[in-house]
Amino acid sequence: MASATKTSWSTFERRMQEIEDLGAALSLLSWDEQTYCSPRGREARAQHLATLSTLVHERVVDPWYGELVDGLAEDPDGLDEVQRAMVRNVKHDRDRAARLPAELVRALAVTGSRANRAWEEARRASDFSRFRPHLEDVLALKVEQADALGHDGERYDALLEAFEPGMRVAQLEPILNGLRDELVPFVRRILDRPAPDASFLAGPYPHDRQLELSMRVLRDFGFDFEAGRQDTSTHPFCGGPGPTDVRLTTRTYDSLEPGCLYSSMHEAGHGLYEQGLVALAPRSAVAHAPSLGVHESQSRFWENVVGRSRAFWEHYLPIARELFPGQLAGVGVDDMVRGVNKVAASPIRVDADEVTYNLHILLRFDLELGLLREELAVADLPEAWRESMERLVGYTPRNDAEGVLQDIHWSWGEFGYFPTYTLGNLYGAAVAEAMRAEVDLDACTAAGDFAPILAWLRTNIHRHGHVLSGEELMQRATGRPLGHEPFMRYLTSKFGALYGVS
Ligand code: ZN
């Protein structure tokens, strides 16, 4: 490395690490806010978070740091592949942050929190008209933001870029349409069949024992409790300061499903990925997942492909029966598998099963696209929502609360986020298909031996961090480009057998 490059590299590295440290502190404070923070400490906590976020932003957009980053990006001779990726990732985020005027950033934060409060009230009253003016304000700012960030005529791309770098509507839309064309008739065929009896899942199941079961499963999956922990929160999430300290949360209901176990397995999928990032340079811009879709592929894989398989319950039903002898008396492996894979035309995305889930996402993607292309007005959302739900899911929402008001995301201005859930499902199925060529997924699961499964994920996905783009990483790991085919093959094989349809 030439000495000039050497000096600028070490200056760059110090600043990058400082920004990463601040990010880790932010993540820990926000974990605490949602788990153990005293009720009276919340307001002060919001202030701490805001101050730290401002410090991060100032350091990121600092002009001399920009010059340094641009210099290294233009003249990367002497940098290895991983260092180049660090520069690329920092430059990507920095350029985007620098394009946004401070006034717009402030307006987005203020309008978002006001809209969020209005959304809460509107949802409680099931009255979209109370949310509508606020959503109009948020959307106007998102349009402004997308235009400030820049795009080739498709505004949505500028927002999608925050969650799925490199992905474009032109590529995504045909894939989602292909999925829709196969999924809608498949769901109809399933719903024509008799629904399985899943009443035994309602319980009540003692909460402490549900937590005990989830801890057992997490340990078996290979989650390292020396490098993380699990607590409870209202909305389960995976956070924490970094790979050696991963914070999972879960929640308990009286029922087994929906309940603690599947929330835990989902978040553990994220957490196992985070712990696997320990292979990358710590405190660096490559020790992250390359995209939310890739991250979500790991949670969906453990929750659905592993956790909702027959093999899983062959191993865990006897264990669960010891914890819940009364609730599971007379329940066999087949009953359990049919129960946790029950398909229903239901209104709420977060409660949807694996088969209908993506239809809820396709609906949101179409509406978001319409709003940002200014082809759909906010005022027409409830009706457009109703029409799409009937067409795609075959369900008519009874009111705004179970229709257009159900998600928190739009109130915060999170447009472009929803597709990452479906990308997670598509990637997750492709991962499982590729893994099966080398690992006997079902035999390992039935034996409760998850080490070969985790090892495959570590080698092919986790240890690469954000050196490659999400798409390149998945292309290498799965040996195929992004598409809906592996996911449809997975669904038809599993649910075709469960419901006797093809
Ligand atoms: Zn997730």
Report Rg: 23 Å
How many strands, what sense, and barrel or not for the largest sheet? 3 strands, mixed
Spell out which ligands are present.
Answer: zinc ion
Question: Structural class from helices and strands?
Answer: mainly alpha
Tell me, rounded to a whole number, the average pLDDT.
96
**Which ranges are low-confidence, i.e. pLDDT below 50, for 5 or more consecutive residues?**
none
Tell me the strand order in the biggest sheet.
1-3-2
Number of helices: 20
The CATH class of the largest domain turns out to be: Mainly Alpha
Distance between the termini: 60 Å
Q: Determine the strand fraction and express it as a percent band.
A: under 5%
How many β strands by DSSP? Answer: 3
Q: Can you walk me through this structure?
A:
This protein is mostly helical. It has 2 domains: 3-160, Up-down Bundle (Methane Monooxygenase Hydroxylase, Chain G, domain 1), CATH 1.20.58; 169-499, Neurolysin, domain 3 (Orthogonal Bundle). Helices cover 63% and strands 3% of the residues. The chain is built from 20 helices and 3 strands. It has helices at residues 3-35, 42-61, 63-74, 81-99, 102-125, 128-149, 155-160, 169-191, 207-221, 260-276, 292-306, 310-323, 333-340, 357-372, 381-393, 419-436, 441-446, 451-460, 470-478, 485-499, and strands at residues 228-232, 238-242, 245-250. Strands 1-3-2 form a 3-stranded mixed sheet. A hairpin with a 2-residue loop joins β2 and β3. α14 packs antiparallel against α15 (381-393). The longest helix is centred in the first third of the chain and has 33 residues, at 3-35. The protein is globular and about 70 Å long. It starts with a helix and ends with a helix. The protein binds zinc ion. Zinc ion binds next to α10 and α11.
